[in-house]
Amino acid sequence: MSTFSDNVFILDHPLIKHKISLLRDKDTGTNEFRKIIEEVATLMGYEALRDLPTEEVEIETPLEKCLSPMIAGKKLAIIPILRAGLGMVGGLLALTPTAKVGHIGLYRDEMTHLPHEYYCKLPKPIEDRTIVVLDPMLATGGSAVDAIDQIKSYGGSNIKFMCIIAAPEGLKKLSEAHPDVQIYVGQLDRGLNEDAYICPGLGDCGDRIFGTK
Ligand code: PRP
Ligand code: URA
After folding, report:
1. Closest ligand 1 atom, residue 196 Cα
2. By the 8 A CB rule, do 178 and 158 touch?
3. Residue 166 gets which letter from DSSP?
4. pLDDT tens digits for range 37-85
């Protein structure tokens, strides 16, 4: 795992790299694309959750009693940014099945590229939870900054953000706007084109997950 700045972690696991290459391929169909998004989310979640607190619990093995570490409490919230973030939820729940799931609905205006909010429902209380915000694409960074602003306005504070592909522009914007948020990136790409799409990227992630192109 290499770091971009203090709060940014760019993952370098070969399995993540390989699967992202499959996602980039324009010939990868909806069914396979959806499956791989979920797999990458699981692999990234394994890294992003490595600092979850544990507590010693008494366990009785077939041989004797012992103290053994287990995840402390059940206070995790997974918050996908609609729509594309939904594709990552199953991958995280595979690791932490008892996590609560909130949703933030945002869409990017095609002309201005600015995010517009249309939905927000978060688990209550949100204050004490470790929060993992999911969105496969960090392009201009507008959507991620907005989503995290909203979560903070409800009292969320211990926040991680996971994206599969980031543009340097969005990564800079998000890490400067929210320096307290740990940002996990599957792959850092070259930059944005004139339509604010990530290049080389993987295209419109929501459309590829849901087959809506
Ligand atoms: C995509 C993507 C992010 C956003 C990234 O969503 O899933 O949410 O764009 O762009 P930004 O960093 O420039 O804000 P989109 O608005 O296309 O909505 P969708 O997921 O519903 O298709
Ligand atoms: N949203 C996407 O789905 N893809 C991009 O490249 C940028 C924003």
Report:
1. 13
2. no
3. E
4. 999 999 999 999 999 989 999 999 999 999 999 998 768 999 999 999 9
| Ligand 1, CB cutoff 6 Å, lining residues | 81-84, 106-108, 113, 115, 135, 137-144, 170, 196, 205-206
pLDDT score, position 190? 98
Q: How many residues does the chain have?
A: 213
Q: How is residue 68 annotated by DSSP?
A: E
pTM for the complete prediction? 0.96
Q: Which atom of ligand 1 is nearest to the CA of 204?
A: 17
The DSSP bridge partners found for residue 184 are 9, 162
Q: How far is the CA of 58 from the centre of ligand 2 (A)?
A: 47
State pLDDT tens for residues 175-197: 999 999 999 999 999 999 999 99
Using left for φ > 0, alpha for ψ between -120 and 50, and beta otherwise, residue 60 falls in: beta
Neighbour count for residue 126 (Cβ, 10 Å): 20
Which ligand lies nearest the alpha carbon of 107? 1
Query: Which bound ligand lies closest to the C-alpha atom of 138?
Result: 1
CA distance 31 to 39: 13
Other beta carbons within 10 Å of 15: 11
Centre of ligand 1 to C-alpha 12, Å, is 24
